[in-house]
Amino acid sequence: MPEQFSINVTLDDEGIGIVEWSGHTDQKTLDEALSLAADDALIAQGAHRLEVQVPAWDRMAVRALHNARFRREGVRRRAIRDDSGELADVLCYARLAVDQVYGPAGFTGVMDSVLPKHRVIGHVLFRDEQGRVLLAETTYKTDWELPGGVVEPDEPPRVGAEREIVEELGIHVQLSQPLVVDWMPPYLGWGDAVEFIFDGGVLDEATRARMRLPETEIRAFHWVEPDDVAPHVYSLSARRLARLLTWSDADGARAFYTEDGREVEASDPSGS
């Protein structure tokens, strides 16, 4: 005889609840039971946070959590064995008393927590009066890179790049349109990302004299001749910089888009 379905919320003294269920049921019943249990704990019992962990393969549970407006907060990697004995992920969900639950914002808030998120990077191309390129030697990898870094959540790439330049070089710049927008494939333990490279123009001698190394992450700055850039940077960066350093007035102010540092060829719509 199948085990009777039941759902339970255990609240601690801090108002945090753990939601668990057992037994067999259908999707509609699980959806309704989870929503009712969550509403009761958060509204009637005064909980401020509910937590649930479910195996990644349990699509019924995941769907019910989404319908009850729980948001995904993380993944416990390879934390449980499936029926075949293979290790699988566990998904961690939570719902807060202050979360928007009803209306369009409730649904989109859930989707924002489960859909892919890409890193966005803002780097800046600086040159000196001799045309040399400024590269940063970091403390955590062997290849050098342009100054700049990862953009914060809700921060425009341009503003993020300006902030990173203050943090890394100690100087203030005002940036405009990007020179290139590049999709970067996974590399060195990182997932894929989208990078914006902005033109920082020419740094004169007085500005260069004001540059200061940050306390962490960057070991040294190097002014590098264009022909000597490639041996110091990752192959992806070398491809992009080779294109940027041959930029001419004929190209105009138009930014271009690349993937893995390579320009994308337009397809022929006629199919010929």
TrEMBL record:
Kindly indicate where the leader peptide sits in this chain.
none
**Record domain Nudix hydrolase: where:** 116-246
Asked if Hydrolase is a keyword of the record, the answer is: yes
Q: Could you confirm whether the keyword Hydrolase appears in this record?
A: yes
Short name of one Pfam family: NUDIX
Q: Which cofactor does it need?
A: Mg(2+)
Q: Which residues form a coiled coil?
A: none
Instruction: Write the record's keywords in alphabetical order, separated by commas.
Output: Hydrolase, Magnesium
Name it: 8-oxo-dGTP pyrophosphatase MutT (NUDIX family)
